[in-house]
Amino acid sequence: MIRIANGQGFWGDSLDAPVQQVRRGPIDYLTLDYLAEVTMSILEKQRSRDPKAGYARDFVDLIARLLPELRDRRVRVIANAGGVNPMGCRDALLEVARSQKIPITVGTVTGDDITDQLDRILSRGIELRNMDTDAPLASIRDRVQRANVYLGAFPVAEALKRGADIVVSGRIADAALVMGPMIHEFGWNETDWDKLSAGIIAGHVAECGAQGSGGNCQVDWETIPNLADVGYPIIEAERDGSFVATKHHGTGGRVTVASVKEQLLYEIGDPKAYITPDVIADFTTIHLQQDGEDRVRFRGIQGLPATNFYKVSISYSAGFKAMGQMAYGWPDALKKARAADRILRERLDRLGLKFDAIRTEFLGAGACHGIEAAIPSAEIEPHLPEVVLRVGVRSQDRKMVERFTREIAPLALSGPPVASGLGLGRPQVEEIIAFWPALIPKSEVQPEVAIWRSDA
Amino acid sequence: MAKRRLIELAHARSGDKGDRVNIGLIAKRPEDYPVLVREVTAERVKEHFAAVCKGRVERFELPNLDAMNFLLHEALDGGGTMALKADPQGKTYSSALLRMEIDVD
């Protein structure tokens, strides 16, 4: 049995969680997921200003903080912290090792970045059609920023086999971070579909951090203990593909059959065909059983052969947006917010501003759910203590969006009464980086694994 | 037949993929799962989310987890970074579904 602990659900998650995962009980591997879709574009902006940047600097700081303990406790680390510059991340890690005089071996997993190969790929008749809209990539080719393939877990396993203490990758499937050590330790091969399916499902349970161990959990949420000190998920994996999801003893949160079911259903489509680079996982074969406090055992998982494609995420510039807010107080708060919205829109019209989209929502009056059942009844409506008017606009023309941001604050003194700008200041204009999901034949992509020693 | 709100019988979690939202709906007690299967049809969910879901609703059953997964297409105002919504990833759609009233035996 090996213990794989996840300490990061996204870049911006708790800085302390990975430290707690290492210190508060035995683990063999620490995995860290830093890359949401939008992260790659942020990192690309950083690299354009500094060629040495473009990776998750937080990860290097974490290793600097933990390296002696990782060595003493023999914990190996796998992170997709490389972002758009895995080799820059490697250099920073080797530098940390040298300055602390603790020799390490870093494994890099690359080959995910196909940005510079797009034209070659397109010229071969691979159109990279949008998986949602079926449009060919050619329609936005001139606005593309980056193209990264979601690689699988086998390159991670290879890096571990070749002795890496720390594996750093660019884009790989989130669950592959967790499955890499299983393939390495148990010698699973590329057609062990049931075991690979189990590994992916284990990764799915752990990859979102504390959301797999009691955070953001609806079932009996008020009785979930000590979320202030929530323990992040740990997978106790067995050679046969069965595993236990748990967390360190003494930490807050909860791991029960019910809480685990919530995470299993998070961000999935057809549960019989959860497509990943290495296998098609079948969530309808999972058998769950409570196995002591904060321990859930998974058994019986089956899978189907992987497809011949990788998914590629292509980011492109898609215009600009801004969101403005103004709060209105009792009485008739919603009526006032609606009046303010009409006034604002009339002013935008008078200014001749045109947007690709404009959207009004009333926070406190059903905006999040957005459905009829959430709208306050006529009886309650006049008594709502406050309602926040929220207006968003989107345009290809930055100037239009910029001008919109100047029209929010004036509402406070020139619109309906009892208005508060909530101290937020003028709305910020954001460049929209949109994502183009496509499939690419595996034969077009070459994952690369390399090993680097700090004392070499 | 009595009316019950789903929140009494089930819990849920939702998330996004592009312009789609998925909502996992889980029976709190296994004995209530068949009632959920009977009552919470794709058509009813489409109707419940009519104001936000412009596309179709697909339903998948996971009897092993006493759960169903609903996929709401064209449900996020364009989705992801394009959306101007306060909840651009549909994270609160889970409890929006739990508002639904169903007939129980």
Helix content of chain B: 10-25%
- Output the structural class of chain B: alpha+beta
Question: What separation lies between the terminal Cα atoms of chain A?
Answer: 33 Å
Question: Outline of chain B, from the CA principal axes?
Answer: elongated
Characterize the structure shown:
The complex is a heterodimer of chains A (456) and B (105). Chain A is α+β, with helices and mostly antiparallel strands. Chain A has two domains: 2-112 and 150-307, no CATH class; 314-436, Alpha-Beta Plaits. Chain A is 29% helix and 24% strand. Chain A has helices spanning 17-23, 37-49, 57-73, 86-100, 118-123, 154-161, 174-186, 193-206, 257-264, 333-350, 398-405, 411-414, and strands spanning 2-6, 29-32, 76-79, 105-110, 144-149, 166-169, 234-237, 243-246, 274-275, 280-282, 287-290, 296-299, 302-304, 309-329, 357-363, 386-395, 419-420, 430-441, 448-453. Chain A has a ten-stranded mixed beta sheet with strand order 11-12-8-7-1-2-3-6-4-19, with helices on both faces. In chain A, strands 5, 14, 15, 16, 17 and 18 form a six-stranded antiparallel beta sheet that branches. In chain A, helix 1 (17-23) packs parallel to helix 3 (57-73) and helix 6 crosses helix 7. Chain B is 22% helix and 34% strand. Chain B has helices at residues 6-9, 33-39, 42-48, 93-97, and strands spanning 2-5, 10-17, 20-27, 57-62, 67-72, 101-104. Chain B is of the alpha+beta class. Chain B is built from four helices and six strands. The longest helix of chain B is centred in the middle third of the chain and has 7 residues, at 33-39. Chain B has a single domain, classed as Alpha-Beta Plaits (2-Layer Sandwich), CATH 3.30.70. In chain B, the strands form two sheets. Chain B has a four-stranded antiparallel beta sheet. In chain B, a hairpin with a 2-residue loop joins strand 2 (10-17) and strand 3 (20-27). Chain B is elongated and about 45 Å long. At the A-B interface, helix 9, strand 14, strand 15, strand 16 and strand 18 of A face strand 2, strand 3, strand 4, strand 5 and helix 4 of B.
